[in-house]
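dumping these here so i dont lose them again. two proteins, back to back, each one seq then structure tokens. dont judge the mess
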Amino acid sequence: MGHITTLQAADGHEFSAWETEGSHHPYTLVVVQEIFGVNHHIRQVCENFAKAGFHVIAPALFDRVKRGVELDYSAEGVKEGLALRAQIPLAKTLLDIQAAASVFKPRKVGIIGYCWGGTLAWEAACRTDDFAATVGWYGGGIAASRNETPRCPVQLHFGEQDASIPHTDIAAIRQAHPEVELYVYDDAGHGFGCPERSSFNAKAYQEAQERSVDFLKSNMNP
């Protein structure tokens, strides 16, 4: 059901995005990629949300430095993804995310992100007024910016066995933002929501997905 579309950010940058909509989509959602680009997994994420009643756009955030990036879940993919991410200032990435959100205006818009995208979803919630609800899955950079204030309701998901996000980081986020819905999944590691990773945890994914859908819809009633 999905297709590639072209968007333009406020600074004139034109970039690709994956757009998916089902036959009935009263809700709108921006899906923010991991460091692996808008790959097969992210497109499937869009498909799953479309089936749940969302019109979805996933902006290709790496287009500012390299177009058509689709990396696999390998050491080489991680290395290339991190190198690409390092070349893009946060302010520019947020412009691309805002351009994706603008497609849906004036309707209420939600945002969900994974890994790097989880951190970006948090930053978008704190630095823009574009979103009615924000969800982040295993965003490793959230703790570092925990002193920022989100401008919309936020729900966060972490794996208890995530070696890249210390328990102290999760505790720090909880302390700084007791109002944020925050869930930690036993026996789940980083990337537990991706079936293409060895860390995929079906039980944790299902729980987090249901909570995410319910949270987004409850804060975005059309």
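---- next one ----
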Amino acid sequence: MPKTVDHEERRRQIAEAAARVAASRGLRAASMREVAAEAGVSLRLVQYYFDSKEDLLRGVLKHLGGRIAARVARGVESLPRPAGPREVLYAALTALIPVDEDSHRVVLAYTAHHTLTLTEPHLAPEGLAYANALLDFLAERFREAREADQLAVDEDPRTSASVALALVTGLQSAVLAGRHSGPTAVALLTAHLDRLFSPVPR
């Protein structure tokens, strides 16, 4: 019997190989030939699943967005139940900060590919789908906290979510550049949440 090929798994393997090349040697090194060598497959096979470099970039952005979204989901799902908005926000946001080798590689590769969308905006939808969903999720948690009168500030929940994501993006860059360690970045994020959720006189 011929072996059944899991095409989605094969696409995932190739996208993951491209992410490894981008994280270790830079995005410019992630040619289709280099990706094929990293994945241990033929160039023809890479071209079968991704018919152009642009198509490969789209696939990698989607794959990395999924990897990061999965980290957030695992962080939230690991919380004891019931978990309040503050606990959920902490778990979701800290999951975005590179604190170990795997998360460092994923965030570095995603950042490199996402930066490309600044000059290649037609690639942006693949990479921003997860970010937009995350923003919606965070805004809903801030809305819950606001309705429960748990916040020290009275602002639009989507504004709070956008500021929190902007802070995390800056912390990601600082960790990748070596200006902060992962634990230091987590501590700074924690301080931000503490200020938002600290009790104030009503």
